[in-house]
Amino acid sequence: MAQIVDENKSKKHSLLIFIIILLAIIVDEGVNNILIEAIAPVAQHHNWITNAFVIFSMPFALLLGGWSDFHNRRATLLFALICILGSTIAIWYYTIYGNNTLGISSLALKAIGGNAIPIGLAALVDVTPPKRFRSYLAIAICAISIGSWIPIHFRPYLTDLIKFSLVVGLICLLMTYFWFKIYKFDVSQHGKKIINPKIFFSFFKKEIVQIFIFIGAPIVALCFWGFFFSEASFYQMLLRGEFLVQNNYYSFTSLAMPIGYYIGTILLFFLGKRKTADRVCIQLGLTCSLISIIFITFFNSIETENNIIYYTLISLFSMGFALFIPSIFSLLSVNRHENEQGKIYG
Q: What does pLDDT average to in each consecutive run of 10 residues of the chain (346 residues)?
């Protein structure tokens, strides 16, 4: 009886952590888009600003994810959320006073320290049973899409979005502080809770070397380039929906794509119930997306005006990615060590 109670408590705790992870992901991705939208007037005169933001975000996402593997998931997530909140406050004041230093500072703080997504996804590996991980990861990726599409569809209300992000971010920070507590998260790999600067910089020195070794591993390199080219394809389609609205069928792309992705996530649950292998889901997803893009190209070449066909094909294209992306990460997580999960999602 006591064992059943403990198992129920464990499941409830894991569910709570899962909700915290989803909130952290939504806030992280939402603030990313808010920052880029808010800084647009400055970026028009200084093109390097948004490029620098993206370029700096990438290595620091890897390093922060790796630090969570080495040190402490919970503490690292708290640090990232504090940086995100600081960045959001800075961009809020920037929109009020128009001080470019505040705008650039908000981007720098978010790029360097505010990468909660890789930490959250790595934590998901720790709390999720292996047989359910792929499906739960698909839900977490849906949280990324929610964080992305909320700022896209509510652009006119940028100030309200900033305030909303601050409130949600603060709630997530408090939940992480009070309830994100599991032994694996709270104890460092080397058994110390307090990290001095010497340990910190020693880690980063070694980690930079480890990152190159990690990316050079055959399965990691294969998944890395597969993810890179698939994301390039995905965002080519999504950005057409944002900027190339003179083509009728592109105008609702940013709505059709999440619908397809959510349908694909539901399908992934059913495939999980049937214990379909990651490799099979990867093949199904790529085939689905490839067939849809071939038909989109064909119909675009003959300039048909049937938008329903286009939206269906775009949704099918996105549905393929809902099968592909979680499966490729699941495959990678299973084939790599537990202390490399942060780097994987970074």
A: 50 82 90 85 77 84 78 86 94 89 90 89 80 81 79 76 90 90 54 58 71 76 84 76 48 74 86 85 91 85 73 88 86 73 72
Tally of CB atoms within 10 A around 257: 24
Predicted TM-score (pTM) above 0.85: no
Residues near 248 by Cβ (< 8 Å), separated by ≥ 6?
305, 307
Q: List CB contacts of 299: < 8 A, sequence separation 6 or more.
A: 306, 309, 310, 313
Contact yes or no for 88/106 (Cβ under 8 A): yes
Cα–Cα distance measured from residue 63 to residue 59, given in angstroms and rounded to the nearest whole number: 6
Inter-residue contact 80 to 304 (CB < 8 Å): no
Q: Which of 299, 295, 340, 345 is nearest to 320 (CA)?
A: 295
- Which run of H or E residues covers position 87? helix 73-97
